């Protein structure tokens, strides 16, 4: 496991390896661990090369501010913000482990960063995507089911691509997905998506590799589809539909948008989406916030009450 990651010199590397074990025991995904340890490697390497080298127990607020400014200047505001979040979590862990009394990140402001808005895919364009999959052949039935699952479940691309046949529960119209940290959740998908899955599963049974556990099978005999395969299906169908670039994550943002537009309960949305932090409500709602505000203004019609 340790061969997958780089470790900075000295105490940075020693503590980063212990931190890795803590992240693994918390069931963090491999990608999350890679990101966190990559940031510690970069920050630790930089701190070790200062005129007066610093380790995690001696680095100061001022030096950390200098580091974030350096990252922002040399890369981007978004990357500096990611480094801030990763190091903040690392130093909080050091406090819990009693390696330090107080985090040096305390009162260090996050770098200014306005995350780019991810456009949503509106319902009329989902209908156009589905219109390109109206055939009865294997690929048409599979692609229609993929699009339906993305739209109905708000599943992350990895969650959808990792689905096994046993994760589909047609009788209760649900799917079981494994989110970040392999946390399991059950998501209702509705009648139309269950029907699309049923049609796909019937034609899938005649596929040469039908015995594989993976739900989504490729059409060229190469086994289960990958994350990239799911992305390629959506991109190809979007091109056929003439609706511009579409990627799987847009369905997730659209789900959050329409849930809030219909005034669905926010705590329920968090459970469906697999979120632990309420910060995600604002982040995922931002892409179509104006549309919801306009809808609320029309519904309330405050100017007509005079």
Automatic annotation (TrEMBL):
It comes from the Bacteria. The keyword tRNA-binding does not apply. Transmembrane segments: none annotated. InterPro entries: CB, DNA_brk_join_enz, Integrase-like_cat_sf, Integrase_catalytic, Integrase_recombinase_N, Integrase_SAM-like_N, Tyrosine_recombinase_XerCD. Residues 10-95 form the Core-binding (CB) domain. Keywords: DNA integration, DNA recombination, DNA-binding. Pfam families: Phage_int_SAM_4 (PF13495), Phage_integrase (PF00589). PROSITE patterns: CB, TYR_RECOMBINASE. The keyword Nucleotide-binding does not apply. Gene3D superfamilies: 1.10.150.130, Intergrase catalytic core. Residues 116-298 form the Tyr recombinase domain. This is Site-specific recombinase XerD.
